[in-house]
Amino acid sequence: MANRKSPFFDTATTLGKIVAFLGVSALCGVLAAGLMLPMAAVGGATATAGGEMLDQLPAELKEEPLSVPSRVLDKDGNVLATFYAENRVPVELDQISQNMQDAIISIEDERFYEHGGVDARGLTRALINNATSDSTQGASTITQQYVNNVLVNAQYLNNERTTISGTKTVADKLREMKLAVAVEKEMSKDEILEGYLNIVLFSGRVYGVEAAARYFFNKTAAELTVPESAMLAGMVQSPNGYNPVNNPEGATERRNTVLGAMLGNEVITQEEYDEAVASDLGLDVTPLASGCMSADYGNYFCDYVQRTILTSEAFGPDAESRQRLLDRGGLQITTTLDSNLQQEAERAARENAPYTEFGENDAVGASLVTVEPGTGNVRAMAQNTTYDPAAEGDQNTTINFSVDRPMGGGAGFQAGSTMKPFTFLSWIESGHSMTDTLDARTNTYPNRTQFQGSCGQSGTIPLLLDRPAWTVRNAIANMNKPMRADYGLYWSINTATVAAAYAQDLCGITDLMGRVGIQNAGTGEAINPLNPSFVLGSEEVSPLMMAAAYATFADDGNYCEPRVISEVTDTRGNSYQVPPVDCEKVADTQHVAELNNTLKAIASERIAQDITFPIAGKTGTNNSSSSTWFIGTTTGLTTASWVGNFRDLDTLEGETIGGVTYDDVWGSIIAGPMWADYMGTVAEAYPTDEFTAYDGPASDPRTMGSREGGETIRVDGRPGPQPYYDPDAVVSTED
């Protein structure tokens, strides 16, 4: 260097004195520091300080896994959605075109294959330029840039201060230099180049050459041409400034500069240069959406999966760290989703309750959610609205109708008569039979009527009202009369249900509901027995909750916690703990079989007469007709179908849904047909066996005839029956 005549000769001589103290790698560090410090400061004190700093810096680059997208997969491994802070698809060097390799080396580090990690010649040139002109040159080699990117990646992953350009201290730069030299001793040049091309930022959140090739040209990195490679290589210096979408003129000029460097380095011919310079940019921009918006289907299911990750301690100590892991940790999240079922569920929801096609009420929502009995695996979760967090509005909502409020749902929907089977299963558990006769004549329960309640004071629960009495009405006229329990459930007779509740322990009913996972969807609280109207479905529940509860009927009394994730791994091969299949025997097999006799008749006779395989279920409609249900099951799949007003909970009566204006609204004529449309298509992909047979006395729940020897359960201890009768009532087969 002393023999070279240049304006930098004296400075270089001064710096040369430092070599004996710091060595070659230290010289590079001090030169780098010189780019940031006043020239006069480069002297003995600086050298001493630099040496001390250098001794304290690590000599080994500790790499974290690259920040790569996480993928949500269906049960068969198909990609449902991608989450990323950095869109990156790591590839090996032989999957990157030679054009791209030549372009990046030509413009960023033409002596890449000659230096040992730090290029003293390049540093000197940059220092001279920066000292003698208004322009600024960088001096980092590809190895140094690789080191810096690795450090930044690790800092992001560990939520530390990031040493990006403009924020580096002298110590940061010295560390980068020392580590670059160390990296060159541990890695081959090709390994460094491969690592660099996979980690470097190209634009926005597009990192690595493979993701960049896909984003800007809709092709792989292996297919990049000379001009395409030059454009991408040119962007590295200023990813936003040379973004060809926002600045095509600047990107073109920068590309041509890279092409000139490639020509000067003789990696392209004059002919190739001329042809490339004359070409346009040839963009085919293909963005990759991040998050649940990136899913072609199953957006609401994806949202539920994301919330499951963010609320699980298995993925970090808090929601922020869990989201960071999801965005950067390269998680592979295998879910329970069956894509065939999901797409059919979305079709059925949108066709049976179209949201905007007929200019209908934009508050009409529809949900179909399917749970697999025996596992709790959620196989489908669909609704009729558009998922778009960025455009919440008339056609869009991120509210997941299928789930409870803490997991992205609303306050839930009144269950209506879908709650009644649990009163009757508890009735059986308390020693009664579905062939026993209930006195369903009583429709008035005065204030402070004492219901049995082992969890209440003195073993009773008083009816506490702000009015004189609770009047129970039936939707079908002339039904205030004695009837068998199965007949009362089949025709969904409210007075029969309340009579069954009155004749047993209310706390036994709520205990059963707790055993099958039923709680208030808005608050997460257990069903409160202090308000006996819960037996008629006054509580707000979610479709997922009810589907899981009804799956108990399909699996002989085994309740399984719903689950949406079956396995999670990351790029390091780590496995994360996820909820296992969690099932528990909560009801006797024969008790469930006895109840199913009635539920099978309801489903097959009143909902899906054209379905040939065994099904069981129950309809439901709340008092205001703002919420309609059918929850039905085969032995292999249980599906909750809900259609209702999700905005103001106003009645659906008079609304047009799917081109039909409904004067009367019942679960059997809206939610039921939607269930049959969907399940009739998908159910046979899973078992559709016969339900377990009941080996006790049974009767036809459709008829009034009573079984000989059946016990009559009367409502005693209150004023005589006060039957409700409306001669103008429309006779209906729904509640």
From TrEMBL:
Skewed-composition ranges (Basic and acidic residues): 708-717
Any one GO molecular-function label of the UniProt entry: carboxypeptidase activity
Source taxon at top rank: Bacteria
Gene3D superfamilies (alphabetical): Biosynthetic peptidoglycan transglycosylase-like (1.10.3810.10), DD-peptidase/beta-lactamase superfamily (3.40.710.10)
Catalytic activity: Preferential cleavage: (Ac)2-L-Lys-D-Ala-|-D-Ala. Also transpeptidation of peptidyl-alanyl moieties that are N-acyl substituents of D-alanine; [GlcNAc-(1->4)-Mur2Ac(oyl-L-Ala-gamma-D-Glu-L-Lys-D-Ala-D-Ala)](n)-di-trans,octa-cis-undecaprenyl diphosphate + beta-D-GlcNAc-(1->4)-Mur2Ac(oyl-L-Ala-gamma-D-Glu-L-Lys-D-Ala-D-Ala)-di-trans,octa-cis-undecaprenyl diphosphate = [GlcNAc-(1->4)-Mur2Ac(oyl-L-Ala-gamma-D-Glu-L-Lys-D-Ala-D-Ala)](n+1)-di-trans,octa-cis-undecaprenyl diphosphate + di-trans,octa-cis-undecaprenyl diphosphate + H(+)
Domain Glycosyl transferase family positions: 77-262
Domain Penicillin-binding protein transpeptidase: 367-634
Key words of the record: Carboxypeptidase, Glycosyltransferase, Hydrolase, Multifunctional enzyme, Protease, Transferase
Record region (Disordered): 692-735
Protein name, as recorded: Carboxypeptidase
UniProt source species: Citricoccus zhacaiensis
